[in-house]
Specification:
mainly alpha; Helix Hairpins; 3 helices
């Protein structure tokens, strides 16, 4: 059972890696990184629970993974906002084409 969860972990990592290579924009790529973080965290927790059952060590791991997921969510939000600010986009707008100004320049 533990091996199955670890195989699922590796599979989720490869899916995220291929998605990272396939997607074009940094915001789209950020979704792949977040997917890998969440999917692998749950696979690690399930593998540990299958190996040891309910124990203090699994409880500590669960707490550590919750902290990791909260920190990852905060980091992903900060990175996403930075990308939007860098590209001068407003939240909710995926892409905005550069409009020529009155002089015809971009």
């Amino acid at each position: 059972m533990v091996a199955a969860f670890l195989v699922l972990l590796v599979l989720a990592s490869w899916i995220g890696t291929f998605g990272l290579l396939r997607l074009r924009t940094p915001l789209q790529r950020l979704h792949c990184v977040t997917f890998v973080t969440v999917a692998t965290a749950f696979c690690i927790l399930l593998a540990a629970f299958a190996a040891e059952g309910p124990s203090l060590r699994v409880g500590k791991l669960c707490l550590l993974l919750v902290v990791m997921l909260v920190a990852g969510a905060g980091t992903s939000h900060a990175i996403g906002r930075t990308i939007l600010i860098r590209d001068r986009l407003e939240p909710g707008i995926v892409a905005r084409k550069a409009q020529p100004d009155e002089d015809g320049e971009r």
